[in-house]
Structures are given as structure tokens and as C-alpha cells.
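User: Run a structure prediction on this.
Assistant: Running it now.
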Amino acid sequence: MTFAAASHFAETWGLAFAVALFLTAVAYALWPANRTTFDAAARAPLSKDEDDDHA
């Protein structure tokens, strides 16, 4: 395989792989079953733990 052929393969299929990975991440983030997990993670920095004695 020449460099030009490998480069062409990486450009086309690499882009397709990146698009598929991006769409998978967006689908995971917007999936309705994950709403409670992400809501809890969004509130985590604002919650005060019982073992937090710094404030």
C-alpha cells in the first residue's frame, strides 16, 4: 500500500468513523434514560457533602 492510498483511506474512513463516533456520543447524551444521571452530575458541584468541612 502506498502512502497516497493509505492517506486516502484514512481521510475517507477516518472521517466516517469520526462522524459515527460523534453521532453515538450525541445519541448517548440525549437518550431519555440518561436524564437522571446527567441531572445528578450537573448538580454535584453545588451539593454539600457531609464530610466537607472546608466551609
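The radius of gyration is 21 Å.
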